Amino acid sequence: MALLLKxxxxxxxxxxxxxxxxxxxxxxxxxAIQDYLAGRMQQFEERxxxxxxxxxxxxxxxxxxxxxxxxxxxxxxxxxDVLALLENTDDVIDNIKxxxxxxxxxxxxxxxELHDLWLQTTQASVAAVEQLVFAVRSFFRDLSAVNNYIHxxxxxxxxxxxxxxxxxxxxxxxxxxxxxxxxxxxFAIHIEKISDAAQDTCDRLAIFTIKRQL
Length: 214
Prior knowledge:
Elements: H1 2-5, H2 9-37, H3 41-72, H4 76-106, H5 115-141, H6 146-173, H7 178-213
Helix pairs in contact: 2-3, 2-4, 2-5, 3-4, 4-7, 5-6, 5-7, 6-7
């Protein structure tokens, strides 16, 4: 990390902690979906509360890191890349929180026959976020490893799209009310959007990585 930031262990620890929060949010999201499908609503709400805290923590860390970078470190062009990367990564947590919040507000009834594909779509989206965290860590520590993790993010994003499409097809094949089908489709797409946010961040990360290699 010192190769890019040339700064203190404090800022290194701040960025590591920020990425830990992103990773923890993704894990909590997957557990929350498992709780929801199993009808453990109290645990689900506790997971949502934890993710709200993760979101606030991530925002505080990002602002602290941004202030530090502006005041003490980095030439302007590198600083802008790092700030944009942190902001894009922070957006992933926002997507995670927003998705669970909608579950809490609307409490959709998910038929048991959808549970398996629902979990597979969730797992693929979460895996994309986890690989994103590895990619961002590598950007600061081992630039040569970044593209490997970016490739994995793209893989899991495609997997989430594939599982999500199967899920939506299964939703509309069910003998249920059209309004319920539309609601379930909405929630399925929201889960896919988490992996989309991870991919969008990797698109920018790939550009930042190329710039550092020039």
